[in-house]
Design a protein that fits this description.
With 97 residues, the chain is an alpha+beta fold. It contains one helix and four strands. The protein has one helix at 14-40, and strands at 58-62, 67-71, 74-77, 90-94.
Length: 97
């Protein structure tokens, strides 16, 4: 008959448990500090720029790939080239220019 061997679950000594609790407390402190800084830090929001298509003084605007013009029936835009890399949309010509 085969003998059965029993294994006891590993026991945790008090210094190991104390070490684990200090690590857990450190992680909790870092998370708390990160959330607190994110909440209290002043946000730096730039003022929203008016898109050229919404600026009624802009008669023509583009991004280096497409050019749009304001007409009586609405905006009319060109088609972009196949290898065009657009940049920031900006006003190219104002009303009266």
């Amino acid at each position: 008959m085969a003998a059965f061997q029993t294994f006891d679950a590993p026991t945790m000594d008090s210094s190991s448990a104390r070490h684990d609790r200090s690590i857990l407390a450190g992680i909790a402190a870092i998370v708390f500090a990160t959330v607190l800084i994110g909440t209290l830090a002043p946000a730096s929001h730039r003022a929203a720029a008016v898109a050229p298509s919404a600026d009624h003084t802009c008669a023509e605007w583009g991004d280096g790939c497409r050019v749009c013009q304001r007409r009586e029936e609405g905006a009319a835009c060109s088609l972009p080239g196949i290898a065009c890399v657009p940049s920031e949309m900006r006003c190219l010509r104002r009303v009266g220019d």
